[in-house]
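Hey everyone, long-time lurker, first post.

I ran two proteins through the pipeline my lab uses and got sequence/structure pairs for each. Pasting them in order. The first:
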Amino acid sequence: MKALVFHGRGQSAWEDVPDPDVVDATDAVVRVDVVTICGTDLHILKGDVPEVQPGTVLGHEAVGEVVEVGGDVRSVRPGDRVLVSCITACGRCRFCREAMYGQCRGGGGWMLGNLINGTQAEYVRVPHADMSLHVLPGTVDSRDAVLLADIYPTAYEVGVVKGGVRPGDTVAVVGAGPVGLAAIAAAGLYSPERIIAVDLAPTRLDAAKHLGADAVAAPEEGPDELVADLTDGLGADVVIEAVGVPESFELCTRMVRPGGHLANIGVHGEPATLHLEDLWRRNVTITTGVVDTHSTPMLLRMLAAGRLPVSSLVTHAFPPDAMEEAYDVFARAADTGALKVVLAEQHDALLVKGADERK
């Protein structure tokens, strides 16, 4: 089969690799019908995730059809259309029993495209299939559902829930990429007083407005001063960091109010300075985390009910064999206007629905 293989920092190729097989009795093999590219994949290519070894197939988000299952799999069977979760969960270890699936110690956590071969391929082996696959309702479009493999659970759980967003809050989201935009949409479910988005790219700030941001700013426009002006000098109740670079993290610490909450989503590849000489007296709570995906069933119900804005996040679509072109477009988002990029055989019908809706 064909797959996108990581060959070291800055190197990858769409090439032939062996088809996956059921290895353990809890495995399933899924034919990938729709796949997408995550900002974390770009971090891997930059060398920010050293655990990923050369030769690994990238990708951790997909929708597809189950083609084979191991003898112990009970919740899915061949022919089922499923969402492949970015997180694998054994369901038995201490962390899984606490619904902290991202910290699974039973051969789970973030495995696909990280410690084992991932989803940017024609087929993928999914360990612990009973806990790691979600059968999709017939009313849910596969190209919408793929956005619930990672970005929406991440934005909701690591950003909105860990950030403690409440009605009447001022919420600032730094980074209006796909996860940041999903955080804006998810924060809106809690009726904050206002949402402020910060990003370098005007196209992403436009998308942020479309998804519910009340005010937007580029970094050079003094977003910390904008937040202060809008809150009578107090600062934001919740600040969500969705970039993963030191400058954005430090900006977040300047924007959060005393007693406020900074929820870090971004994948950081280098140290960020924690200015405790300023923060220690301000009662600020800082949270981090990899997504657990415990919210995925709830988010799928909301998607089926038409309560989640998903299609507007997709700006570009390609056939699977254009994977390298898709990476180039996604990596140059400031120039291309790319938000979420999907790859599917039926890609023509998708172009460029999200962007058209924002015009």
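...and the second, right after it:
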Amino acid sequence: MALPRITSPHAKGSNRTQRVMLLVLAATLPGALALTWLYGVGTLANLCLASAVALATEAAILRLRQRPVLFFLQDGSALVTAVLLALALPPYSPWWLTLIATAFAIVFGKQLYGGLGQNPFNPAMIGYVVVLISFPVEMTSWPAAHSVGIGEGLKQIFGIAALPDGWAHATALDSLKINNRLTMDELRAQNPAFGQFGGAGAEWVNLAFLAGGLFLLYKRLFSWHAPVGMLATLALMSLIFWNGTGSDTHGSPLFHLLSGATMLGAFFIVTDPVSGATSQLGRLIFGAGVGILVYVIRTWGGYPDGVAFAVLLMNLAAPTIDYYTRPRTYGHRKAERGFKLGE
């Protein structure tokens, strides 16, 4: 009997979807707290606004599709998409930017393909890439740590009053990309965006997301293959092209692991069971591909951090990876041998 070859998207059983989503939300808490500690109310505003927009948009589309609204909202998938997207957006993003990104993620990244378990691309990354390409200035305006008060931040979010010039600064990845004259030591000494190993503040944020990711790994919500594939390949690529502290250095392995959205991507994005690869080998290859693309985009591409683009490109490759890494069918060789003996 011929069995169908099925590639992604893949959805888990619906009876455990809500539990999985709640665990994922719980695992994002360390990273959300670290971002809030560094940047203040901006991250909380992103989370609240994105969550409200995601639930409202999902409810509206479900109503248009004549599907039971409450049943699908309770699975928590829309809320997870909103939270991951909100954590990736710069704090104090204008309200309309968060609205556009979240609505696009739900409509074009999820519901357009039939809803949960049907989307071939990661919805949060689709929303992020759309606003990154459309509004590059707003998407690269990251505030200095501990520099914005609650009142000033809310005015910035809702466009009541702009913050003073200089409140935002280039991130460590931005600064390293355009540096061609200072050594790494000089750049770190002169630029407040650099921390001890990665970006200032980004080191703690990445460690917080690492802690949340290890919690999910402990709960066996996903296997280690995709995260390890991404992180190991990113570290290897940066080690190969790293020349120490010269002016044309592209950053040490530790710098790349603790800067940008590395850990958020490794444990919360590439582990998406719907848009990723299926087999263990396939997940390893999928994660490795993301790691390579992240380094290539960071170093030679037009954007300082390439996690979202890398994930979407590998989402395209997931069906091909599944085709060439599908596991051997149980009993296939024995049956084949018996058929030859019968001849």
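Reply from user beta_strand_b:
Welcome! Quick read of the second one: DSSP finds 18 helices and two strands in the chain. Confidence is low (pLDDT under 50) at residues 335-339.
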